[in-house]
Design brief:
With 364 residues, the chain is of the alpha/beta class. It is 32% helix and 20% strand. It is globular, with a radius of gyration of 22 Å.
Length: 364
């Protein structure tokens, strides 16, 4: 029995991508279908990095087509990913060499925002994306320590800087430009805002799919100015289940809404603690707070992470969890969060103009 390219496409309308929850056809992932007698070949182009599940998706597509098409002899599905630029808040100047910017924010300090940001960046890189990290916490830069990077950035023209790198990330931080780790940044808000703008735009970012920005905690003048100046594709809010942290996290979420930045979801740190001696699980900071906040604001719960000493030790040592123990359950949670963030971005409108329409006044 013969079949056509249309039959192949029709069959794939019944197969759901486990990451996007959409069928591969409506998700516009199916490309270059070729039918040669009883043999089928096609490309499956994912809009998000997913190196670790390419094999799984390939096997799923091939098995589905073999079961759906009568008389098929062989199926070859070539799976790959391509990340494209997506919309940002209008009126904000874009950044050369950067397709998408992910802001990681928190309403208050001490909730694990920087640790989440670095592991999110490393997880996206592990899935095959080109990723950068901008440490925007001008007063308390921590990414140089967390990524084990020392030294100063080079400048060939005296105007722009080359990012430093480690663990596959391109990295820029105010910490690279000061003389010592204990040097305080005693700056007023406008100086800090200008410094970040220079770090963002004077760094020679090299063809990044994602730039993860570790924002300072809080929702004051500096944070608002930064969110208005940085062309953000979407924001991730980090909180703990504690009521006081959730109260501040809600303020952070509302801040991004006011400047028209899409909320990609919420990560809950310190969700639970499991005793390393007896295995007893205890919700030290409360339970279900992050999920309730997601329900209240109709945003996605990206995942929860336990209060685990390894996360802290690995970040302090310059080798965060995703690279220190890439096959651990903790790393798997970070990778799941990263994939959900990437899928949310892939679902957004591909409008990267970020400028207001030109208004022309004509005499009549």
């Amino acid at each position: 029995m013969s079949f056509t390219e249309a039959d192949v496409q029709s069959a794939l309308k019944n197969l759901i991508d486990p990451n996007t929850k959409k069928d591969f056809v409506s998700g516009k992932s199916v490309k270059n279908i070729k039918v040669n007698g009883s043999d089928v070949s096609l490309d499956v182009l994912l809009g998000y990095p997913a190196l670790s599940v390419w094999g799984e998706i390939k096997a799923m597509v091939e098995a589905h087509l073999k079961a759906s098409l009568s008389g098929v002899s062989s199926v070859n599905a070539n799976v790959s990913s391509k990340v494209v630029p997506h919309a940002v808040q209008r009126g904000v100047k874009l950044v050369d060499g950067v397709k998408n910017i992910i802001a990681v924010a928190s309403g208050k300090g001490g909730v694990g925002k920087s640790t989440t940001a670095v592991n999110l960046a490393l997880a996206l890189a592990a899935e095959g994306a080109r990723v950068g990290m901008l440490d925007a916490d001008i007063y308390g830069p921590s990414q140089p320590t967390m990524l084990g990077i020392t030294g100063h950035p080079d400048s060939e023209d005296g105007k722009t800087m080359k990012p430093l790198s480690n663990h596959g990330l391109q990295v820029m931080s105010i910490g690279f430009l000061i003389d010592a780790n204990d040097t305080p940044m005693i700056w007023r808000g406008p100086m800090a805002t200008q410094a970040l703008d220079q770090l963002l735009r004077q760094t020679q970012w090299d063809n990044l799919d994602y730039l993860v920005v570790d924002l300072p905690p809080g929702t004051g003048d500096i944070q608002l100015s930064l969110s208005q100046k940085v062309p953000v594709t979407g924001a991730v809010i980090v909180t703990t289940p504690q009521d006081i942290a959730l109260m501040d996290a809600r303020k952070g979420l509302k801040m991004f809404e006011k400047v028209d930045v899409k909320i990609l979801g919420i990560v809950e740190n310190m969700s639970t603690h499991i005793c390393s001696q007896c295995g007893h699980e205890e919700h030290i900071f409360g339970a279900g707070g992050g999920e309730k906040m997601c329900a209240d604001y109709s945003v996605e719960f990206l995942g929860g992470l336990p209060l685990d000493i390894r996360i802290r030790e690995q970040a302090d040592s310059g080798t965060p969890t995703v690279v220190a123990e890439p096959d651990s359950n903790l790393a798997k949670v970070y990778k799941q969060i990263a994939r959900r963030v990437a899928v949310k971005i892939a679902d957004m409108a591909q409008d990267h103009s970020a400028v207001f329409p030109k208004i022309v006044v004509q005499n009549t």
